[in-house]
């Protein structure tokens, strides 16, 4: 039974255009011009409970529009959408009580209040029964290591500490579905790992469905079993990371460290991408030449001190996908 | 039925929590709060000083005595102070919309108007409140009339109705932010202008002015008409006693209407995004 | 003087940007003036005894008040206040420039730039539709203009003093909140000063605030004869000088305090 069903979702915006300069400002006094932006051009997908989906795309692709519609705070122009058995924007209050949303760049906690008071206020806002609240709070404090932070005003927290508190805050009412928007942005390495670890446990152990919007590919690789790529208002790819890779390119990269700096490599089946001192970056198509064959050819002909074979980094894949989508 | 009552109580308790937070943070800046409150008191006080001086020069206002005008003044002052205390959260609403923080309120399972109003409960409005109560108290004594229980209840209802009316006006003023980035100061004419107008008996104004403040912005229902019933004098404008006793209800209806307009604004916001 | 020009033009541009706000502020003031005049009319019809000012004079006084409202020091330079709040003002204080003159120029610009934008249309509308009278003689008009210039200087001094008081957080809050309310009352915005009780007139004419609005308006009305302009200007300039000296002394004190405390 899918938790989220989206069918042909479409949304356009009208933006008022303003001419720059003083002359434009005066003209703006008389009349305004409008420009239509087609944010979503009919997207469709469905999510089963317990999935951890990465939702990626360039800026302006329609990510936040989709998330806002799913969250119930934006009404689409066309198409069908059902989340947890409801149409989100039609039953806003009932719907938002069952979801959690975390924005990486903005906290939902009250700036001047100690963290625990924000929690208590949220408990009352979400009408969480006292016992359930106490249980959830204690568990989250334990999992996210929040005990020393509870009495600290939110404005005094570091970014990493605030993000952990925001995660807890979004889960106090035990939502079945969690939206994470750029949760690791600006965080130090340790905090990033802590957040990722927490989200993974949340999903794998408690079955909370998670939709993750991010530009951080490490997050995607670490967490997501499924990735949806959106560009120009349409879904470009929906599947596993491997599917995504395969869709864009089959190529692999071979990185060779030469023993002799004066050497140069050339091979009919491999293309040199770039060279940094002794290190040569090559790309090849495993469909045309077996990796093992290529490696033995190159090591036979050139003095190689070390080599690596890898998939193109996911950023590269995504960039190519975005580039394809551009008209 | 009991579920709905439970719901209301729960909302009241939540509101109380918000108020507590707001008040505590304002009291942290105690000196500033005292100064603000004092300045409010002086502001309102100087208005009444002017009225007192004018009565000293002219003796009466179209047949109305200082005590009668003080009753009107006190009633509308207290109504306005109550409204200002509760609904000033809407002042920051345009900023909320502008920097996208309003979305967070939409993501919470509570009414948006409620959340916006609850975020700030201005303690400094006590300045106007205290002054208004003082003037009202003086008027009650100086008027030398019999204060029966029904009359006291009517006074209370009128003050609450007036507060509802002003709350409705503030909500309407903020609702405009759903559509335009620029705040329309024109609403200040009806809020601050309205308080100024209603401090004096409606009867002294031109007919078109009277009609505006009875039918469009029913300020007269907040203090003038109830006061007629309280004073027990025949209304120079000819309103029937039944209407005078029921007029506080109009304020409540106005607020309900304003909240409907808010809902329209909200729908617009949710279809056009921010 | 460059500070003056810079702030003046910046204010002007900012005001042009907010199309609706500009029109609405004017509308608010019209409404306000209308209410006040209606109230005074009602009072004047309630008693036949002779009053220190006639009704037409009071009506014109009210509209003059609306036209010149921006001249009243009811707010401080937002930029300077932000600077004080954030603490960066410490850098300004320890620099060897004449900060008082800078702040005074800014205060003057803050008061006079919007005053022009608001006064002209207000005169036009109130004069055509709402019973605002022209001055009874050319001499009265000239005297009024001179007194208004004096009022601007005085307003600048008061504004600067309020700004300086912000350097002391505790009293600064108090002064900047209380003074506007007090100013409005004693400048004649609650009630034309002559209408206050006779026993209060001596105090009212002594205080500086009368020079902000009341005395210039009465010059306009001819309520004070044109010859009185010298007395009015004298009163305004004496208070201006006193407040400037007070401001400079206060600023010097604050600077010393900053230096001692290390900023």
Number of structurally distinct domains of chain B: 1
Mean pLDDT of chain C: 82
The largest β sheet of chain B comes out as: none
Q: Would you identify the regions of chain C where 5 or more consecutive residues have pLDDT less than 50?
A: 11-23
Structural class of the secondary elements of chain C?
A: mainly alpha
* Quaternary: heterotrimer
Question: Which percent band covers the strand fraction of chain B?
Answer: under 5%
- Protein structure class of chain B: mainly alpha
Q: What's the total count of β strands of chain B?
A: 0
The number of helical segments of chain B is: 13
Please work out how many helical segments of chain C DSSP would assign.
11
Biggest β-sheet strands, sense, barrel of chain C: none
The topology string of helices and strands of chain B comes to HHHHHHHHHHHHH
What are the low-pLDDT stretches of chain B, counting only 5+ consecutive residues below 50? none
For the largest interface, the chains and their residue counts are: B-C, 39 and 37 residues
What separation lies between the terminal Cα atoms of chain C? 28 Å
Number of strands of chain C: 0
Instruction: Tell me the span between the first and last alpha carbons of chain B.
Output: 38 Å
* Relative helix content of chain B: over 70%
Helix and strand element order of chain C: HHHHHHHHHHH
Radius of gyration of chain B: 20 Å
């Amino acid at each position: 039974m899918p938790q989220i069903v989206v069918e042909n979702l479409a949304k356009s915006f009208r933006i008022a255009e303003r001419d720059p300069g003083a002359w434009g400002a005066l003209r703006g006094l008389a009349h305004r011009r409008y420009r239509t932006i087609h944010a979503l051009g009919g997207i469709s997908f469905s999510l089963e409970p317990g999935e951890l989906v990465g939702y990626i795309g360039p800026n302006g692709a329609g990510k936040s529009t989709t998330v806002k519609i799913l969250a119930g705070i934006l009404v689409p122009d066309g198409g069908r959408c059902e989340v947890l058995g409801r149409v989100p924007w039609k039953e806003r209050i009932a719907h938002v009580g069952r979801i959690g949303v975390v924005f990486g760049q903005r906290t939902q906690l009250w700036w001047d209040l100690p963290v625990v008071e924000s929690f208590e206020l949220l408990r009352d806002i979400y009408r969480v029964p006292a016992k359930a609240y106490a249980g959830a709070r204690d568990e989250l404090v334990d999992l996210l290591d929040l005990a020393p932070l509870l009495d600290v005003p939110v404005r005094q927290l570091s970014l990493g500490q605030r993000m952990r508190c925001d995660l807890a805050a979004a889960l106090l009412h035990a939502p079945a579905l969690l939206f994470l928007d750029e949760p690791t942005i600006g965080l130090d390495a340790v905090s990033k790992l802590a957040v990722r670890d927490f989200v993974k446990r949340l999903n794998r152990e408690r079955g909370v469905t998670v939709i993750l919007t991010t530009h951080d590919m490490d997050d995607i690789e670490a967490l997501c079993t499924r990735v949806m790529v959106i560009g120009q208002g349409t879904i470009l790819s929906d599947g596993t990371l491997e599917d995504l890779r395969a869709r864009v390119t089959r190529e692999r990269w071979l990185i060779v460290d030469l023993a002799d700096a004066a050497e140069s490599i050339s091979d009919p089946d491999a293309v040199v991408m770039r060279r940094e001192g002794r290190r040569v970056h090559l790309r090849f198509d495993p469909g045309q030449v077996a990796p093992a064959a290529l490696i033995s050819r190159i090591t036979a002909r050139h003095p190689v001190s070390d080599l690596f074979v890898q998939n193109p980094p996911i950023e590269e894949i995504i960039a190519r996908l975005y580039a394809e989508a551009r008209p | 039925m009991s579920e709905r009552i439970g719901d209301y109580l729960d909302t009241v308790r939540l509101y109380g929590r918000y108020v507590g937070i707001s008040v505590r943070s304002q009291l942290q800046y105690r000196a500033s709060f005292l100064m603000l409150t004092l300045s409010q008191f002086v502001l309102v006080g100087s208005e009444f000083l002017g009225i007192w001086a004018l009565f000293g020069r002219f003796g009466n206002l179209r047949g109305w005595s200082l005590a009668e005008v003080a009753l009107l003044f006190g009633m509308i002052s207290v109504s306005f102070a109550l409204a200002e205390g509760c609904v000033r959260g809407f002042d920051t609403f345009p900023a909320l919309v502008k920097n996208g923080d309003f979305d967070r309120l939409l993501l919470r399972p509570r009414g948006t108007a409620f959340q916006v109003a609850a975020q700030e409960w201005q303690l400094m409005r006590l300045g106007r409140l205290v002054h208004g109560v003082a003037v009202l108290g003086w008027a009650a004594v100086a008027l030398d009339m019999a204060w029966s229980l029904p009359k006291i209840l009517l006074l209370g209802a009128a003050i609450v109705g007036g507060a509802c009316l002003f709350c409705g006006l503030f909500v309407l003023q903020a609702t405009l932010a759903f559509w335009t980035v620029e705040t329309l100061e024109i609403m200040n004419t009806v809020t601050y202008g309205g308080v100024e107008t209603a401090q004096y008996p409606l009867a002294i104004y031109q007919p078109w002015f009277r009609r505006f403040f009875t039918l469009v912005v029913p300020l007269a229902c907040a203090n003038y008409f109830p006061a007629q019933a309280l004073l027990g004098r025949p209304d120079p404008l000819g309103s029937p006693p039944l209407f005078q006793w029921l007029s506080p209800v109009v304020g409540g209806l106005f607020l309900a209407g304003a909240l409907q307009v808010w809902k329209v604004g909200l729908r617009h916001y949710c279809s056009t995004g921010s | 003087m460059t500070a003056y020009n810079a702030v003046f033009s910046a204010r002007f541009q900012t005001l042009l940007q907010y199309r609706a706000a500009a029109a609405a502020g004017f509308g608010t003031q019209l409404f306000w003036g209308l209410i006040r005049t209606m109230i005074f009319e009602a009072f004047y019809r309630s008693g036949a005894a002779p009053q220190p000012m006639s009704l037409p004079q009071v009506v014109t006084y009210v509209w003059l008040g609306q036209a010149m409202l921006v001249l009243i020091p009811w707010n401080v330079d937002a930029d300077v206040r932000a600077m004080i709040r954030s603490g960066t003002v410490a850098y300004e204080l320890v620099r060897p420039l004449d900060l008082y003159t800078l702040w005074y120029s800014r205060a003057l610009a803050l008061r006079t730039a919007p005053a022009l934008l608001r006064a002209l249309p207000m005169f036009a509308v109130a004069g055509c539709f709402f019973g605002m009278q022209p001055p009874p003689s050319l001499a009265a008009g000239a005297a009024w203009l001179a007194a208004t210039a004096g009022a601007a200087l005085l307003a600048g001094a008061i504004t600067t003093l309020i700004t300086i008081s912000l350097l002391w957080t505790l009293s600064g809050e108090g002064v900047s909140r209380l003074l506007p309310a007090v100013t409005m009352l004693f400048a004649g915005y609650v009630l034309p000063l002559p209408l206050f009780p006779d026993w209060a007139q001596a105090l009212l004419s002594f205080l500086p605030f009368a020079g902000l609005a009341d005395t210039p308006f009465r010059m306009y009305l001819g309520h004070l004869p044109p010859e009185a302009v010298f007395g009015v200007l004298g009163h305004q300039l004496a208070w201006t000088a006193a407040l400037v000296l007070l401001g400079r002394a206060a600023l010097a004190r604050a600077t010393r305090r900053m230096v001692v405390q290390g900023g």
